[in-house]
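The records we work with from here on pair a chain with its fold. Here is one such record, which you should read through line by line:
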Amino acid sequence: MSPMTRLSAVAAAVLALVACSSTGSSASTERESASLARYEAAAGEPVDSFRFFRLDGFTVLGENALALWANPREAWLLTVDEPCTELRWSLALNVTSFSNRVHARSDSVQGCRIRSIRPIDVAALRESEKEARTDIKVQQRDA
């Protein structure tokens, strides 16, 4: 195989991989957008800070938003100033705080400054997620 043919084969393989990965990320972005819309609908007015003793979990909602779960009944919607590309791949979070309080505009998540903090009505969020699951329709095949 000539060097030019080998180069063409490698280029074709790279283009195929890029096409596959962009298709998957588009679906992922659509799911994140739908989830973010549900979280925003369930979130209250912005607050300056909240008490934070431990992280029970987190939900990434894109490069600029995430939900921090303090416990199963308490969650906070955080938005960050700049895209925080590490959020999607994080297995753990680094959240800064002062005296067990996380403050908007001065604390950060994964090194990205927190722009806003909104309390989440967890019951309303669970109801909207339940409705989203029941909206999925199953089509029956003809016999």
Residues 6-24 have pLDDT under 50 and may be disordered. The longest helix spans residues 3-42. The longest strand covers residues 112-120. The chain has one domain: 3-131.
